[in-house]
Amino acid sequence: MRVSVVIPAYNEEENIKRLLKDIFLIFKGNHRGEIIVVDDGGYIVQRITSEVMKQLLSIFLPVFNEEEILEKNVMKIYEFLTNFVDYFEIYIIDDGSTDLTPQIGKKLAQKSGVRYLRFERGPSRRENLAQAFKKASGDIIVYMDIDLSSDFRALPKLIDEIQNGMDIVIGSRYVKGAKTKRVFWRLIMSLAYNNFIRFFFNSKIKDHQCGFKVFKKSVLLGLVDETGYDRLFKRGWFWDAEILIRGQKKGYKISEVPITWEHRDKGSFNFRRELKIIPYILELKMKL
Q1: pLDDT tens digits along 210-232
Q2: Beta carbons within 10 angstroms of residue 127's beta carbon
Q3: Higher pLDDT, 34 or 162
Q4: Is residue 195 located within the same domain as residue 264?
Q5: Contact 84, 53 (CB under 8 A)
Q6: What secondary structure letter does DSSP report for 153?
Q7: Same domain as 94, residue 40
Q8: How far apart are CA 235 and CA 129, in angstroms?
Q9: In which domain, by residue range, is 209 found?
Q10: Which end of the chain is more exposed for a tag (fewer CB within 10 A), N or C?
Q11: Cβ neighbours for 284, distance < 8 A, ≥ 6 positions apart
Q12: Are 27 and 50 in contact (CB under 8 A)?
C-alpha cells in the first residue's frame, strides 16, 4: 500500500519540521509513500517520496574563499539531508581558496558523510568540480552553489524527476512557478545570455546557468569525459551551458523544475572577464 501525507504550508515552520521528522521515521522503514506540502492555493511547494529517501545521493558543493558562510551553509544542507534521505555524501570541492576555507572544510569532513577535496590550481569555475564528480559513490549526482541562492529545499522535487525517468534536472528560475529576487541589470544580463544560447545552439532550455542541477551519474560522467578538462580555463562559466547543450545533442531527457532563487551579494561572475569565452563559444559551435 502506498500512502500520501499532505501537510498545509500555513503551519508554523517548526510544526512542519516536527511533522516531517515523525513521518520520515515511518517511511524509512518498509512503508512506501510520499509527503506533500501545499500552500493556500493548493500548489505543491515540497514533495518527498519514500523512494528518494532510500537513494544514495552524492552532493557536490564548489567553494572558493567561502570562510564566512561555508560551515553554516554546509550544516544547513547536512541537516536537511539527514531528515529526508537515508544515504548521502557531501563533497566540498575547494577550487584553490586562499582564506580559511581549507581549515573549515577539513573540520567539516570529520562529520560522517562529508568529504573535503582541494584543488591547488584555481579558481577554475567548473573544471575542477567536473573532475571531482568521478569520486561520487551515488547513482544520482547533485551540485549546488554554496551561497544557497537556490532554495535547496526544492531538492526532493528535482530528485523525484530523476526517479521518474529524467536524465538531467535543472533548478530553473525561468519556468512557470519559479520565484526570483535579483537586481534588474543582472536579470537582463541573464535573460540575454540564456536567449543567446537558445538561439545560437538551438537549445530548448530556459535556464542554462543556475547552479542547482541533478544528474544520473552515468549521464554526467559521460558528458564530463566528452567535454574534457580545459587547462587554460577559457571555458569559464560556460561549462554549465555546454554540458546541457551536449546533453540535448545526445537526446537525454532534461526537465526544468521551478525553484525559489535569491541573488547573493558575493559572486565570482565578472562581465568583462566572461566576454573572453566568446572565442570558445564560436569554436564549440563549429565542432557541434
Answers
A1: 999 999 999 999 999 999 999 88
A2: 25
A3: 162
A4: yes
A5: yes
A6: G
A7: no
A8: 13
A9: 55-287
A10: N
A11: 242, 245
A12: yes
**Percentage of the chain surpassing pLDDT 90?**
63
> Where does residue 283 fall: left (phi above 0), alpha (psi -120 to 50 degrees), or beta otherwise?
alpha
Supply the pLDDT for residue 221. 97
Contact 73, 89 (CB under 8 A): no
C-alpha angle 137/140/143, rounded to 5°? 95
Pairing verdict, β 260-262 and 44-49: unpaired
Q: Whole-angstrom Cα distance, residue 49 to residue 31?
A: 11
Q: Are 241 and 197 in contact (CB under 8 A)?
A: yes
> Is residue 4 located within the same domain as residue 109?
no
Which pairing describes strands 254-258 and 32-38: parallel, antiparallel, or unpaired? unpaired
User: What's the confidence (pLDDT) of residue 53?
Assistant: 47
Domains in the chain: how many in total?
2
For residue range 163-193, list pLDDT tens digits in order: 899 999 999 999 999 999 988 888 898 999 9
pTM: 0.81
Closest C-alpha to 183, from 149, 144, 148 = 149
Residues 34 and 127 in one domain: no
DSSP state of 150: B
The mean per-residue pLDDT over the stretch 80-89 comes to 85
> Would you place residue 125 in the very low, low, confident or very high pLDDT band (cuts 50, 70, 90)?
confident
What was the pLDDT predicted at 119? 95
**What residue type is 192 in one-letter code?**
A
CB 244 within 8 A of CB 205: yes
**Residues 65 and 46 placed together within one structural domain of the fold:** no
**3 state DSSP class of 190:** helix
Same domain, 71 and 165: yes
CB-CB contact of 46 with 156 (8 Å): yes
Predicted confidence at residue 61, as pLDDT, reads: 98
Helix and strand element counts for the chain (H, E): 11, 12
